[in-house]
Sequence to fold (344 residues):
Amino acid sequence: MAVNPPRIALLGATGFIGSAVLRELAARPVRVRAVSRRPAPVPPGARADIEVRAADLTEPGEMAAAVADADVVVLAALHSAAPAARLAGDGDTAAERVDVGLARDLVAALAARASGPLPKVVFTGAVSQAGPTGKDVLDGTEDDRPAGAHDRQRLAAERALLDATARGVLCGTSLRLPTVFGYGPGSTAHDRGVVSAMTRRALAGDPITLWYDDSVRRDLLYIDDLARAVVAGVDHAEALAGRHWLLGTGEGRPLGPVLQQVAVLVSHRTGKPPVPVVSAPPPAHAEPGDLVSVTVDASAFRAVTGWAPATPFPEALRRTVDHLADEAERANRARGERVAGGAA
Fold:
């Protein structure tokens, strides 16, 4: 490892996004402080020097301690990705304390530094922060008019960091993510997104439910490709500083055919006929944006960083189904062993 390699504070290191970024950083000759409420597992064979720090960043003083002497901060902490969390309105103080408060705390902690180079900050936001645009393809030039409370909070956090960049407190950028899905080798966090949720239904023998008609498309970015994009953001933080950038594959995929592929892949694993894909009314937590097609033009980010998605979609889908099928098989074996033990 190089003398005095950069220290990267990864906030939210056990989350769906943060854990994937940790795996990507672990392969590099850097120092990583992995911060989360529960201790983050160190990826096997890590080349990085990884310090695991369990902390509640909403508690006084914890943010300053988490980012002390960090050259780079990746803010991937999120209140909750569970669907029920989206029912929260603007008065949900717990969500706002995390989704907005942590960004403000980070600015305050970095502003308190007496001297030294400006710390680099990479924030993981969401394409949905733009709100309904009426455009078929988003490229980052849209005016932001978020429709939901969660997106308004993420936008407020982004603006706090970009305003601090304009004031010379830090060198910050925001990467707005599309629909991210999947599991890769070493995945440790739960994916609650539509692809994995419907895969779990199919593995249980239940019909896959589709809120959308065949015209609604999603730009689906595989988790390992997303992790590489975040690390590319770290590598090019100075060139990216002061604005937000959209990530995506450039292809909007109709969810109906995608979920049909899931049903077939699950059938190959289980040896049973594919479960049906059926229409269902949207649940209470659905937002207007859930019924709108999203395709992302990420060419601006690609031009600066050289990043591009590398995992073919069929392979990404297969890895996701295989991971969840293996998970289900382990759970079934464990249940069988408990039943056998009880009978004995």
Q: What stands out?
A: Confidence is low (pLDDT under 50) at residues 81-88. Residues 119 and 291 are 39 Å apart (CA to CA). Residues 7-186+220-253+291-311 form a domain with the Rossmann fold fold (CATH 3.40.50.720). The first strand starts at residue 7 and ends at 11.
